Amino acid sequence: MSTNTELYGDRFRKSLQSEYQVAVIGAGPQGILYASWLKQARPELQVVVLEREEKPKFKIGESTLSGFCKALRSVGISQEALELLFFPKNGLGFFHVDESIENVTEAPEYILETFDETFQVERRLLDGLLIANARRLGVEVIQGARVDLANSQLSDRGNTIAYRHQQQKYELKSQLVVDASGTASVIARHLGLYNKEDVDFQSNAVWGYFKNVNRLGDRTYWPNVAQFSRDEYTQHFCFREGWMWYIPLVSWENVPDAGDDSMLNRFLGSEELPTKEELAALHGCPKEDIISIGMVLRQDRDPKFAQGRKVAFDHYAKQYPAIGEMLEGAELISDLYGTQQPLRARANIRGYAEQVVGDGWLSIGEAAFFVDPLISPGLTGGVATAYFAVQSTLKAIDRNNFSASTFADYESFAGKLYEALERDNQLVYMSFNHPKAIELIQRFQEIDARRHFNQHIMSDYCLADTNVWGILNPIYQSLQKQLWQIMRQAEITVGKTKAVNEQSIEDYELMVEQIQAYLANYLANHSELTPYMLQNEVTKELKTEFACID
Fold first, then answer.
1. Beta pairing class for 369-370 and 351-353
2. What sign has the CA pseudo-torsion 401, 406, 407, 413?
3. Which residues, in sequence order, are CB contacts of 383 under 8 Å at separation 6+?
4. Which residues are paired to 151 by β-bridges?
5. Which end of the chain has fewer CB atoms surrounding its CB within 10 Å, N or C?
6. Which domains does the chain have, with CATH numbers?
7. CB atoms within 10 A of CB 464
8. What is the 8-class DSSP label of residue 248?
């Protein structure tokens, strides 16, 4: 009698094609969105996605931004479905914490208020939703397919991709191979083109999932006005060695069929969405009391990560009282998603492919570059590369030319975007030296981002959206580069006379004065694009007015 595995294998072999126009390695959001957009543009194309895992599993990367959510909507995943499945997120929050701050409500704060509604996502569910949607659009997704590049051939005259599935060896042919394997960056690493060494501001991360946290949303007093609960922002606790994220989640861990197409298809297409009550009755009610908390530490400033993940995490929770107070009584979940680890860690997280196109192939998303989780650029920047790559792919198909030179426009775009995102990221890291610097840099970055969003709010996802936050605009680039010089020189100057652990905000007063002088006109002329500042200026005026009446 045949086993279930043998029957599955027979069905798989009968349904398998051997030739495709495009093969994608990796079924994460970037790869699936690339394949979905390509299939939407040319339904007749044969597109296959090869995914290593048999089903979506735990991944870090929960914070989404408006560009990514717009991309989801463009392939048919509705805002209403996202609202039903995930925790709401309405911007980015920044607290400057040092040894003197006992409670986070005392910390200097800046909030980059939302452009539109976004979400904190559980990646297992999100990735499953994207895969189910891609299949609905006609993309073939083969899960449990382990690509073997050593026995594959890459060429502008056609590629042969070897892979294993259910212990069997297979080959497929495709005109183009797209590497969307995330930080595994399988093609660049296979060709010796991936670089983690020549990277400024290299960083390490340690993180976990907690229950019974002293949640920000439960606190009744905040000195400044925000548009939403403090739980509805991706929160950054900023200190001189790095930062800590705080992200509330809706966890679907205990819903056994959360990765099945039969469940996920209920949230796709024209079917009527279930209510939250129906969802609870069908699948069990997800718990919301889970907080993702992680620290990202600069290698040039942190001495603790090398001593172990727990040592590093506990050190900064103790060194900065506001962090310790929030975690007092919290329970670290030891086996969330079956990982068998209470704390996870990743070293040398920044990296990039020195070459993102070649004859017959290109890399997108985190396979092309990974900057850092600070200010949540991964999904938004990643889908920008995916969409731009789709336009380049369509041109290559029309020309029937898949040589590296055909993708020169994409290579140029990816390089410029990577450099700009790195500078933006580094500006924020250097702003952690002083609370006023955090405010000034956030206002500077927010102005172009909000203006760019407002200009394209009514359009579907398009090439304009690949200019992430307007970051490639020439005026912004000029200001960004000069600010980087000011702040980097300040760190070098202070560092010549004081070790990092001896530095204080007073050491960076001159840097703040220089930033203020440089940005004064720019910030004043665009104050309407920084609503957190406006709403708190109005509040202060009202308080002053009432005080005078009293």
1. antiparallel
2. negative
3. 29, 30, 33, 67, 68, 71, 365
4. none
5. N
6. 11-431 (3.50.50.60), 435-549 (no CATH)
7. 11
8. E
Residues of the chain with pLDDT under 70: 1-16, 270, 285-288, 339, 541-550
The single-letter DSSP state of residue 250 is E
Given a contact cutoff of 8 angstroms between Cβ atoms, the answer to whether 364 and 322 are in contact is no
Query: SS3 for 197?
Result: coil
Whole-angstrom distance, CA of residue 324 vs CA of residue 317: 5
| Angstrom distances, CA of residue 86 to CA of 121, 124, 247, 461, 525 | 5, 12, 12, 22, 37
Q: Are 230 and 91 in contact (CB under 8 A)?
A: no
CA atoms of 424 and 92, how far apart (whole Å): 15
Burial class (CB in 10 A: 0-12, 13-18, 19+), 504: middle
Please write the tens of the pLDDT for every residue from 47-94.
999 999 999 988 888 999 999 999 999 999 999 999 999 999 999 999
**Whether 282 contacts 274, CB under 8 Å:** yes
pLDDT score for 4: 43
Which three-class secondary structure string do you get for 479-520? Answer: HHHHHHHHHHHHHHHHHCCCCHHHCCHHHHHHHHHHHHHHHH
- Rounded to two decimals, the pTM is 0.94
Cβ distance 25 to 162 under 8 Å? no
Q: What is the sign, positive or negative, of the torsion defined by CA atoms of 316, 62, 29, 337?
A: positive
Query: Which DSSP string corresponds to 49-114?
Result: EEESSSS----S--B--HHHHHHHHHTT--HHHHHHHSEEEEEEEEEE--TT-SSGGGS-EEEEEE
Q: What is the DSSP-derived secondary structure letter of residue 433? A: T
pLDDT of 281: 79
Q: Contact 17/369 with Cβ under 8 angstroms?
A: no
- Between the two ends of the chain, the Cα-to-Cα distance in Å is 89
Contact 365, 144 (CB under 8 A): no
Burial state string for 142-155 with b = 16 or more CB within 10 A and e = fewer than 16: bbebebebeebebe
Q: Is residue 385 a contact partner of residue 35, using CB atoms and an 8 Å limit? A: no
What tens digit of pLDDT does each residue of 383-414 get?
A: 999 999 999 999 999 999 999 999 999 999 99
Neighbours of 108 (CB within 10 A): 19
